[in-house]
Amino acid sequence: MSQGPYEPYPQQPPVPGSWGELPGQPVVPSPPGVPAVPTYPAVPVFYGYPPQALQQQSASGMYVAAAVINWVYLGVIILATCGIGLIALAWFIPMTINIHKGARDRRKHTSLGVCTLLFCNIISGILILVEDGNRSS
Fold first, then answer.
1. N or C: where does the chain have the smaller number of CB atoms within 10 Å of the terminal CB?
2. Is residue 58 assigned to a domain?
3. What are phi and psi of 48, to 5 degrees?
4. 18-22, 57-61, 111-115, 127-131: which has the minimum mean pLDDT?
């Protein structure tokens, strides 16, 4: 392979005699019997990744599924009763919002699960109670 008049990569500047020596810097000899300690130029050192912002805990899948099922079930009730089911909004919306909030923290919400089981939806209540078994009190 023939090369043209140009080098394939830019040439690096010449390296001084040893690390830490700068051109024109006097070399101080070490005393006899003591190994020479190389002096390094002062450069910024990066020991890893910069600090990251704290991330929120991920939401629990069963809690999110319970909340979605509650919203869908509420929509079905409203459509099936031709709007009279709007009365169900009085307890569905606050409980579903509490399920969304409970998905982020790691506490047990047994009473919320029982109330959801009795007053909203059996499937959502069971999902919350099952997930509470995996959480600390």
1. N
2. no
3. 125, -165
4. 18-22
